[in-house]
């Protein structure tokens, strides 16, 4: 047995963890949050907390010698990536053979690096994906609560129509409308009022200065500024950074014992501790939480875990593509980094696609229309435990993404045909028009009602909970963080009401 470090420990500090920490803190439970990344609040030598996308440095990526941006090339030249020195940077790309997964590292998790898009899924599709969850409660209570806490807001339609910063989106909308497709505004957690002040020159630029995947210096309501700030405000929550949880076992005296590695910024492990707690909330994300539980089951530390741990993982059908426009259809040198519009063809039963119109802010006219398509891909991956490296390995093959590519191709073939345009083949490497080897939306691995009960309580162990994107079975049809947050709100309310302290 290890000394009891705190009544509750929360692993990770993304959306799910932030909800858990706040609601535990408000309930008067002393809680420690353990995050493997750093706190992003201190300016670097350039006076900024986060580096710009055009001049990435060590802060950009998690212990890399070269950046690995999603758009690797332009006109087939490797002009995007840069050599950097290893450091606990904010964006990680976890490479598993045929599939790579982008995740955020640091206090705030994915909220530090994401595009801020905050849609709520179609209710009918939500009910199909998570039939055991009461949709009335979700859409009546928990989604509104999550959106309010996260600071979800919408672009002013008049400004959107007139600003040069969204010209790229209006051009894509015109091409979609020519094809008979409808578009919809996508809400965001970036403060659009702030963005208008950036455009007016009255506030320092962030979304209008190319900032997004390596962090936003202004305007973005990441969870360190919302949920986690409120959690710290309860006086019951503390956050410890550069703490990686590597193992968990039951304490014979009750509760759990974690093995936690502290690292310095060179990556050197400076301390290994065993920390005890009564209740443990896993919010390390789909990859992180699944790895912790899979390792615990396979090494015999938590042998009663369900065989569903590690199963039912998906990419949310992510695939990116790009089109080349005619010379007269300029997309503009100035592009806001926060997407605000999507092509909504999800009700097309034969070929459902929700394609967000993504910016490609290069500061020059390039006539490129970019998209992140979310498709309905029934394929699922699973994780196996590799004892030699003591890590989880994703089992996912390239052909499993064929349904996503086919769906996106179906939609964009129609758009190209109607507008006499073509795909761009030079942006994603390997002369590909579709980027099908990475995802921004890892979902599943410890799915609700399979590896856990209907509220995230891990099957087989009392006082052990999953609170993040690993609860969602692989697909949502829209970007996931609002749903991850709302589900965590729902589960925490039940757990705090019912489970013994
Ligand atoms: P995460 O936010 O991933 O948080 C997990 C945290 O746990 C991380 O901080 C991690 O460092 C930490 N951790 C992991 N393992 C351990 C460990 N062993 N010990 C301690 N700490 C650990 N979603 C949207 O809805 N809209 C978007 O526009 C959008 N754009 C995206 C763009 C990018 C570039 C990326 C990478 C993601 C994007 N996403 C978007 C996805 C969204 O960010 C994720 O779905 C969301 O962050 C997942 O939340 P989570 O709570 O499951 O975990």
From TrEMBL:
Keyword annotations from UniProtKB, A to Z: Cholesterol metabolism, FAD, Flavoprotein, Isomerase, Lipid metabolism, Oxidoreductase, Steroid metabolism, Sterol metabolism
Xref: Pfam families: GMC_oxred_C, GMC_oxred_C_1st, GMC_oxred_N
EC number(s) from the headed UniProt entry: 1.1.3.6, 5.3.3.1
Residues that span the membrane, as ranges: none
Pathway(s) served: Steroid metabolism; cholesterol degradation
Domain of life: Bacteria
SUPFAM superfamilies: FAD-linked reductases, C-terminal domain, FAD/NAD(P)-binding domain
Domain Glucose-methanol-choline oxidoreductase N-terminal, residue spans: 104-127
InterPro entries: Cholesterol_Oxidase (IPR052542), FAD/NAD-bd_sf (IPR036188), GMC_OxRdtase_N (IPR000172), GMC_OxRtase_C (IPR007867), TAT_signal (IPR006311)
Cofactor(s) in the UniProt record: FAD
Family the entry assigns: Belongs to the GMC oxidoreductase family.
Name this protein carries in UniProt: Cholesterol oxidase
Species this protein is from: Streptomyces racemochromogenes
Organism phylogeny: Bacteria, Bacillati, Actinomycetota, Actinomycetes, Kitasatosporales
